[in-house]
């Protein structure tokens, strides 16, 4: 007798309609879907795509700041940056593990990233030109990541939601270390203050693009919200980020590069200028200033370190004894 599969129930097990009903009831009750549960194929595919894209962003996101590890201005700054970049590697690992609970294969996901068949966040395709960029990435990029990821702690898929809880705690450290670095620089020389302002000028708009296209140009959002994978729309999260960040910019003493940015008393929120969506589309489709470098470096890391993967697999197979086949 063969075991029932997820997509083809055997005789005596519930039919697809009742499985769908149970899935819908779980979502409606705000309970979690777990790996053992039946789920619609579209839900599984959407999650794999989103979690993979998120995992790729964590791993590729190590590069812009990693470039500064050997040029950190002090031992203290180097230790902080090293801890932060290592955290991002850990985030990638939790997320690839979450994708694996959905039947995805981590090596296959990496191949798809390198071949350009899966995306990562557009933000990591910009260069880090000075050490102030390290601070601004922590403040703005990790700050935007927090806005995006805190609601994901309530995502309907259990392993993803649980991974996000730890990720968000670490992101909060990332944001603070960035802000603390910028506060230090703003208390320094005119040249240091100018470096911070220049970094803010370059990273502000790309940070707003991190929330993705506007709601009326985001075709998959409605379904993701209905499934409880996403909790707020792109524009809602972007607005939350702007409202949170403007007072922090004032306290820091920098100017956000948007002449249209004003507080709207009646609406109780900030209004801001038009985002250059043509730039966003260029960068996300591979034409950003650093896309080729990021992917080439990821490819080299995969190829140069293949012997480690092979050795680990051989070691696992040896220790699995009679179950060598499953370890391979
Ligand atoms: Fe992260
Ligand atoms: Fe981070």
TrEMBL record:
Any one GO MF annotation of this record: phenylacetyl-CoA 1,2-epoxidase activity
Superkingdom, taxonomy of origin: Bacteria
Cross-referenced InterPro entries: Aromatic_CoA_ox/epox (IPR052703), Ferritin-like (IPR012347), Ferritin-like_SF (IPR009078), PaaA (IPR011881), PaaA_PaaC (IPR007814)
GO CC, alphabetical: cytosol
Pfam families linked: PaaA_PaaC
A single BP term in Gene Ontology: phenylacetate catabolic process
PANTHER family linked: 1,2-PHENYLACETYL-COA EPOXIDASE, SUBUNIT A (PTHR30458:SF2), PHENYLACETIC ACID DEGRADATION PROTEIN PAA (PTHR30458)
Protein name: Ring-1,2-phenylacetyl-CoA epoxidase subunit PaaA
Protein source organism: Geodermatophilus saharensis
